[in-house]
Fold each of these.
Amino acid sequence: HFRISFSYLCPASWYFTVPTVSPFPRQRVAFLGLFFISCLLLLMLIMDFRHWGASLPRDRQYERYLARVGELEATDTEDLTLNYGLVVDCGSSGSRIFVYFWPRHNGNPHDLLDIKQMRDRNSQPVVKKIKPGISAMADTPEHASDYLRPLLSFAAAHVPVKKHKETPLYILCTAGMRLLPERKQLAILADLVRDIPLEFDFLFSQSQAEVISGKQEGVYAWIGINFVLGRFDHEDESDAEAPQELAAGRRRTVGILDMGGASLQIAYEVPTSTSVLPPKQEEEAKILLAEFNLGCDVQHTEHVYRVYVTTFLGFGGNFARQRYEDLVLNETLTKNRLLGQKTGLSPDNPLLDPCLPVGLTDVVERNSQVLHIRGRGDWASCGAMLSPLLARSNTSQASLNGIYQSPIDFNNSEFYGFSEFFYCTEDVLRIGGHYHGPTFAKAAQDYCGMAWSVLTQRFKNGLFSSHADEHRLKYQCFKSAWMYQVLHEGFHFPYDYPHLQTAQLVYDREVQWTLGAILYKTRFLPLRDLRQEGVRQAHGSWFRLSFVYNHYLFFACILVVLLAIILYLLRLRRIHHRQTRTSAPLDLLWIEEVVPMIGVQVGP
Ligand SMILES: Nc1ncnc2c1ncn2[C@@H]1O[C@H](COP(=O)(O)OP(=O)(O)OP(=O)(O)O)[C@@H](O)[C@H]1O
Ligand SMILES: [Ca+2]
């Protein structure tokens, strides 16, 4: 005779106990069996939920972290399922080749290819850079392929030979080539298209060698950084670090600023156009808006992004210095003529330049005119002298060069600054990363005021970043002032704007517009994968389906077992009641046999 009582931890008024049952041996075994099975199922269910729970964002973040750590390992060149892609960035100051690779597409049409930078057996990124820029081949276009050979041989040595035939090669040129006359551009490209296939068997054709527009360059940079930051992921909105969504179901994307040697780009996502612009500006704004679909199926509109992007040719660090020197030369010669002076016409009567370090002497030559200059290292005066180079028109909304700029919500935005934005803050000043205007201004001012002799001494003692060369030391003062003017006076970023990161590596990956370029150019590949391997996909979806049905099946089993237990208990209870009505004395009798009741009269 034993009592099964379940008293649940709940308010006293709810205390209840399950009636005592006296199951018979056979039934007792069956009952115990059912009870055991249901506990087991419940236990498995709880384990399952725990596992499910783990697959929610916290685990997803961890997965992403692991993936990033995984990216730092050497690329497994034995894995023949990997695909490779090459992008040559022919910049104004140099050319670099980036070797990318990606595993077979994961089958989810909403995902881009998971493209990463290849890493060699020492886990170093497979990238090679040469100087000067390809525009140096302007007068000898027949040597353009010779110029690029070191980069292509480098890539050929890293990509598995049997993969060369299916490895696309993109040669994309930026501002350096844009500044050449078109016929010179075409002559250089024609030489590449003709000669490279004679020596390398990469997947390469005429359409893969081009001078891209500044707009394309800006869009590619925007795609690259947002891909690396996971801002195109949609599934884990509840991810703790997820910033406010720009539109339902999408994560906020970051804007980019990219200042090269010759051109400057800015790109950032704009919400569907709310601001009503005057017709002229409306027209202009349309030209500056890039709308593109990152889905591999143009029908998937949730991957359509609307990005304000514009490029400023001649606003790169080096070219701006050229324009500055032109300006100073013309101003000085005009002043000399008007005032009968000889400033800068001889080394001992140099023009004092606030944008060069103190004591540094230099000579500016333009069409047989010569100007001797000497640095006087005054960062603030330098900034003031750069104002005319921003070429702002007098309307309030105008930005650099009088080009319309779509309003930026500085309180709800994040920007990444690349190239010169990174070099100017990191190489010499060592404050790359989170940008703080006043801190940068102070560090730049101090650097500018240092004597050139001190700077060269420190350079020899290796006090600056290994990337910093003498060219960097010489123009750091000018470029930091120019970058500062462009950011705050040109693009109207507040002086204490807190959401700008200057970067070259993000999660240990060099983020370049070249990554965005190959992501964009391969965005339809997944579709091809899907179509080619429909079977795999169908199988995949069947598997996923069955997995889901499994869970429903699972719940159904639990329900059935619990129902059986409840019915069983109710049946036992009915039996028990019937027994007590007909067999009450029996119980007492049983008790009497076992424990004689003293003084209790049993029976009539
Ligand atoms: N790692 C580096 N550290 C310091 N300076 C650098 C570094 N790499 C390039 N530079 C210099 O910074 C300037 C800008 O280089 P960057 O490669 O960004 O421009 P680019 O791509 O050649 O020009 P553009 O994009 O306008 O065609 C150049 O003067 C270049 O010599
Ligand atoms: Ca560049």
Note: Residues 1-21, 239-244, 584-604 have pLDDT under 50 and may be disordered.
Amino acid sequence: MSESEVVVYANPELLAAAAAARLVTRLVDLQAAQGSASLVLTGGSTGIAVLDQLRRSPARDAVDWSRLDLYWGDERFVPADDDERNEKQAREALLDHVPVDPKRVHAMAASDGEFGDDVDAAADAYARVLAAHARPEDHGDVPGFDIMLLGLGGEGHTASVFPESPAVYETERSVVAVRNCPKPPPTRVSLTLPAIRRAHDVWLLTTGEAKADAVALALSGAGEVQLPVAGARGRRRTLWLLDRAAAGKLSHVYQPPTA
Ligand SMILES: O=C1O[C@H](COP(=O)(O)O)[C@@H](O)[C@H](O)[C@H]1O
């Protein structure tokens, strides 16, 4: 697994714009090198702000959206038209505005979808989607995602893997149903930490003082049971993209001047 790298931006707006630019560059490079790319999206304020910035950027047209496989790291198990749904927010922020191939947009089921309110069936179905897209070189049932975007909570959750919850102890399954989440909505579907660690690059995006303790603990060797985000690592790269407030409890990282 890769060591963590940290980049701090002066404010949340700069972080979102710079992460969007970084995403364009990386996706274009990947498509040039291997023909297509895969990207795992996150919910949460910072992840959606990055997609919003991407939509506004003229450089977005450099990406061949038709040759991009899109997945989600977690989903709130609510009806498809619920504003809380990560997929709905991502579509409104970006996906409805770029020519993605619908067959390559791999969303998790909604609670009014084909599995009804059976969240276990929804999780199992997504595990099958991942397995169907894994290649021989991935050595398992999860694709080697090129880039995975993740957010985090102040208590240390990432995707929908919460501290001390059953999901954080999962070692076999790639996707699990999550119930009784401390953060609403309470029922979710999430990739597990072993599935997250199949990604080549993991980018952890967060802003705000409320995340500063979790960031500092994760970067100082906290255990993943108490702080799941500490277990989110990419095989090639683990990149933390923070604003000054989220990085406020880190010493020895470069802090940019206030913009
Ligand atoms: O509920 C969720 O929250 C986290 C973080 O969200 P934020 O708004 O505090 O940045 C996110 O990573 C996750 O995907 C989402 O479902």
Note: Helices lie at 12-34, 45-56, 86-93, 119-133, 193-196, 212-218.
Amino acid sequence: MTETFQFKLLATDGKARRGEVSMPRGTIRTPAFMPVGTVGTVKAMYLDQVRELGADIILGNTYHLMLRPGAERVARLGGLHNFIRWDRPILTDSGGFQVMSLSSLRKLNEQGVTFKSHVDGALYHMSPERSIEIQGLLDSDIQMQLDECVALPAEPNEIERAMEMSLRWAERCKAAFGDQPGKAMFGIVQGGDIPKLRERSALALRDLDLKGYAVGGLAVGEPQEVMLDMLDVTCPALPAEKPRYLMGVGTPDDILKSVAHGIDMFDCVMPTRSGRHGLAFTRYGRINLRNARHAEDTRPLDEQSTCPATRDYSRAYLHHLIRSNESLGGMLLSWNNLAYYQELMAGIRKAIEEGRYADFMAETQENWKRGDL
Ligand SMILES: CNc1nc2c(CC[C@H]3O[C@H](OC)[C@H](OC)[C@@H](OC)[C@@H]3OC)c3nc(N)[nH]c(=O)c3cc2[nH]1
């Protein structure tokens, strides 16, 4: 824990990095997986469970929280940490991505975005400055710049326009954020699937000397190899001594490979959202518990796990709960999946420390092929 935001590189293995982000509210071991807590809750989980599984930081969602309960209300209630009872770091997205993906966007121009709330249809205008103000009202520890994320495939000039506007918005967000030693504002690299735009975005953000950098505009429908190719261009253009956060990623395989390309931080709804729909992540691959073949299978998901959801409940019971759409089904599979993701991150961190990341990656991927033993 430190009074300021600091990132230390502890070990590297090829491009894979083992590091540590220290902030007043706590230390983040990297590579890190950050569970998504959209509207102030990691869905179907208690936050002390989330902590026990090894999460050092969770995400909050500016777009959802500004609409309900409202950023000023959260501030009046003492900020997000007190509201949701999580006293460790919280990272919030700026809201731009959610506006484009969730609301009926009315206008997007140099000033910012104007949109109608998907909650009550009210009209909102969010500028780069307002986004940073909202994240400040939420008392967020790591705040993201407002950016424009373009879905792929897209026209090169459209990708270039959005990337350049995002750079101007990064400068405005940096000015609005000012000097908050114990917090950080990350820039977001854009540039779609065009290497020279990616490099231009990363180098321009590097010149802003920000505390950390997100790689945005990926995991938006492009093939995995395109995402990895963009990391090959982007990571070398970013400062080695700052953390790198790949937004919205991903599956366990995406994470393994992105760590090997130099990424430190990840977030994805995959473990929680797919858990609610009956998908279990295990050491031996994925198991879809909706499938009738589990109806009388008395085995747990993995009897060698230390996680009760993984070790103590039969697949037959999980199948029954999911088929019956019972809350406990989503709770147990969210628990199992977050446990698996954190176990994977712990294995990744240890393998980098011991200089055997390539072997760890190969073994892990081999185990996934063993399937539903
Ligand atoms: C999936 N592929 C994916 N997700 C991208 C998110 C959103 C991350 C966001 O994704 C959900 O919001 C929708 C999560 O809520 C469900 C948010 O957690 C609070 C999370 O915030 C960091 C991006 N956000 C910004 N600001 N810029 C991006 O370029 C970007 C790219 C993404 N790709």
Note: The longest strand covers residues 6-13.
Amino acid sequence: AVVVCRRVKRGGKCGKANGIMKEFEEKCRTPAAKLKLVADAMTVEMHAGLASEGGSKLKMIISYVDNLPTGDEKGTYYALDLGGTNFRVLRVHLGGKGVGLINQEFAEVSIPPHLMTGTSDALFDYIAAELAKFVSQESEEFKLSPGRQRELGFTFSFPVMQTSINTGTLVRWTKGFSIDEMVGRDVVEELSRAMAKQGLDMSVSALVNDTVGTLAGGRYTNKDVVAAVILGTGSNAAYVERAQAIPKWHGVPSKSGEMIFEKMISGMYLGEIVRRVVLRMAQEAAFFGDTVPPKLEVPFALRTPDMSAMHHDTSSDLKVVETKLKDILEISSTSLSMRKTIVELCNIVATRGARLAAAGILGVLKKMGRDAAKDGDKQKTVIAMDGGLYEHYAEYSKCLENTLEELLGEELFKNIVISHSNDGSGIGAALLAASHSKYLQDE
Ligand SMILES: Nc1ncnc2c1ncn2[C@@H]1O[C@H](COP(=O)(O)OP(=O)(O)O)[C@@H](O)[C@H]1O
Ligand SMILES: O=P(O)(O)OC[C@H]1O[C@@H](O)[C@H](O)[C@@H](O)[C@@H]1O
């Protein structure tokens, strides 16, 4: 789409802004042919990543899940879901065979930014304190029988080298976290120590990535779920792989990193990309006049939720865009034409992200051999989706689904179901705590 400046007041400048937009749009273009190359490359790298240590740019995490939840699990289990922006504490009550999930309760807490770059103790003490508060507010019905500990599934949404179902060491931080002393440490040990300090008698039965939690949660209610994708602050995917398809894994801890497809397509990055382009237009094309608004120079000043609100502005005078620019970037006087340019930019950035996300999903489908119709059989493929970006950014998730249909073709797409598994990662972690409970043999 070409952005046309109605009143060419500053002809050269307006043309310059136009030029920057068009150049940027060209760079963001993701034609189907390019996306199919991305998907093919991803499949190749996935094979390489499973074949040998360090064999690929796309390293693959191998999650130890001995028993996926069957639906027969019974009792009360907990989850702690630590993501890039917030964390949730959760309690689920399971009714066992034929009953399933009876109820769930959760509390969501934003992670104070200073804890993302402080010490390990500060972060885990804060998390354990919230967990202890959640448990202390429980009603009598959740009192455990004597001799039993509460059991927790720990969703830790960062690259972890897993060494068993409930042990794993942090490979590195992502999404703005940077607590250096924690790298290489066992994250379950850190949490367990902090829980003990709170006097919380709880054990971690399962350590999972949020994609694995979403996969387990999805399969609990739908056996056709074969993969899970998270599009939140970060992005990632998990799928069920046959052990024999992992040559490098001989039942011993894998030293691989993780399967990261975080090509700045997720919530952490989209708003920041828009900000950087607008800043360039302000600096090189006097988009806001002869001065560059100071707030526009602050990294991450424009968050993806605000970008999303502008992108979804349906008002004729783009009032939401005007308000966001004023409240967040302190840019007061903007013309309708300028606001339209901002919306078009949001569309370019969101479209690129969504289309690349679809290419990543196609890569996983190809790895599972589900990107082409098997002769005649109509195998159903359900992909469980979770993450605040997917859940709240309607234009993004719509574009993702349309792109997946474009890449797979209408016929095949009919067998693919994209199912939003709200809070799948938290519930899945609690279910995995249940299916790996140390009291199972007592049942
Ligand atoms: N209204 C919204 N529109 C677009 N993106 C949103 C919106 N709300 C949240 N997000 C994105 O979702 C991310 C949070 O994802 P979520 O899955 O809830 O948490 P986490 O990433 O911590 O697991 C935020 O970083 C933000 O980028
Ligand atoms: O749920 P979040 O916080 O957006 O995380 C999604 C992904 O974010 C990536 O940065 C992590 O390396 C992955 O492990 C994680 O799955």
Note: The CA atoms of residues 43 and 401 lie 20 Å apart.
